[in-house]
Design a protein that fits this description.
The protein has 422 residues and is mostly helical. It is built from 16 helices and no strands. The mean pLDDT is 83.
């Protein structure tokens, strides 16, 4: 096999433009999530209210996911992403208006809270389209031989944005308050919309345009469930994210347990993304396709251990270190999973496969947030986090025992096949 070029995907201009769009958009999106969490907990002082944020997003995201995948596979990807960003800008504008001082003083707390939940609910519908559209568009910007490298840089860009977005949000809340922080977010969304049009429209590769919806959905589900590598990877990660969703409780740790305020909250929220980002940069130079199954199991086991350490810690810097290494292990998991999806998914089914992935992984973040909020309400915050980490460890051990074929999963041959194809 030829020596790997760690910058292979970055040598394509359109892919660089796409990375810029994604960075700006995710930076704003991650900022917005942090600001909403802070505002909601400030209004309610109730951990369950943080879980409800996740629930409000997961209901429409799950209900629309498969249909979104069908629409993505039938649509031109650049314009579809533009429509999603335009709709997202309306959510950002709505949140900005909801925190206007006059509205805050004139409206009741419940009215503001329910309005925030309503906008988050609308965002859940968009979430169903964002993931499949972005996943499908990446495959149209670079040749197949650099899919793994593109997956690494794509994930790294996402992680960089989620490093800087939450950290900036924490400082921004402290410096200019929630209201003007949301104004910045609205501006970022508009900027990403403008930059996107530097990428020309792309061809639709699906040979079955106009295929009946139910037949299309059935075909997508059948492909995922018969492709054991894809099914195993996303199922394992789903359970880990579901029970390891400690980040949803970070406002409680920052305010009530570690007592570090909004600035400390930003640091805690950014720590996992810093670890994941650094890991992804390393994987650009050291591919992890060999023995991918075992590496994925080890990574998620390590993630569970880090979550337990974080839950038990009452010292700020120990908590930061635990979250940092949870990001390191999650970064390995993300790169392996994205590489599996890119290498094993045919072009005409990318939207539907990505939608199933979003149902398993993306939505499990929100469901994990609800699970964390609910268990924190029932068990207490610390016990809930330790419980989640323990369940992650049990899941990994069980998967490793009952699925020896997944332990032996290796992506080297798939990568060599794509290099010969190009």
């Amino acid at each position: 096999m030829k020596k790997k070029d760690p910058y292979a995907a970055l040598r394509f201009k359109e892919f660089n433009i796409f990375l810029l769009v994604r960075f700006v958009l995710v930076f704003g999106w991650s900022m917005q999530f942090i600001v909403i969490e802070w505002q909601v907990y400030s209004l309610t002082k109730d951990p369950l209210s943080l879980g409800i944020i996740g629930l409000m997003e997961i209901i429409p995201a799950l209900s629309m996911a498969l249909f979104a995948g069908h629409i993505v596979d039938q649509s031109e990807k650049r314009n579809l992403l533009a429509k999603c960003i335009a709709a997202f800008s309306l959510i950002s504008l709505g949140l900005f208006l909801l925190t206007w001082p006059k509205i805050v003083s004139d409206w009741s707390t419940n009215t503001i809270l329910y309005s925030i939940y309503g906008l988050v609910f609308f965002g859940g519908f968009l979430r169903a389209f964002f993931g499949p559209t972005i996943f499908s568009l990446v495959a149209l910007l670079v040749p197949k031989r650099v899919y793994p490298n593109a997956a690494t840089w794509n994930s790294s860009t996402w992680q960089m944005a989620t490093v800087l977005g939450p950290a900036f949000a924490g400082f921004s809340i402290h410096w200019i308050g929630v209201h003007w922080s949301l104004c910045i977010i609205f501006g970022l969304v508009i900027l990403s919309f403008i930059i996107l049009f530097q990428i020309p429209k792309k061809p639709i590769l699906n040979p079955k345009i106009g295929e009946p919806v139910m037949q299309s959905l059935k075909e997508g589900l059948k492909f995922v469930f018969k492709t054991k590598a894809i099914l195993g990877a996303i199922t394992l990660d789903m359970v880990a994210v579901l029970f390891g969703g400690a980040v949803a409780l970070l406002p409680i740790f920052a305010m009530d347990i570690l007592k570090v305020g909004s600035e400390g909250f930003g640091v805690l929220r950014a720590a996992p993304a810093v670890g994941a980002f650094l890991t992804m940069l390393i994987t650009a130079y050291i591919p992890i396709s060999k023995n991918a199954g075992m590496k994925l199991l080890v990574a998620i086991f390590g993630f569970g251990v880090c979550i337990i350490v974080f839950g038990l810690s009452s010292i700020f810097w120990i908590s930061v270190v635990a979250l940092f290494f949870s990001g390191v292990t999650d970064g390995v998991s993300m790169v392996i999973r994205q590489t599996i999806l890119q290498l094993k998914t045919p072009d005409h089914m990318r939207g539907r496969v990505a939608s199933v992935n979003s149902m398993f992984i993306g939505s499990s973040n929100e469901l994990g947030a609800f699970e964390s909020g609910l268990t924190a309400k029932l068990m207490g915050t610390v016990t809930a986090v330790v419980f989640g980490g323990t369940m992650t460890l049990i899941t990994v051990i069980t998967t490793g025992i009952v699925s020896p074929s997944f332990r032996k999963l290796d992506l080297t041959k798939d990568l060599e096949a794509h290099e010969k194809e190009d």
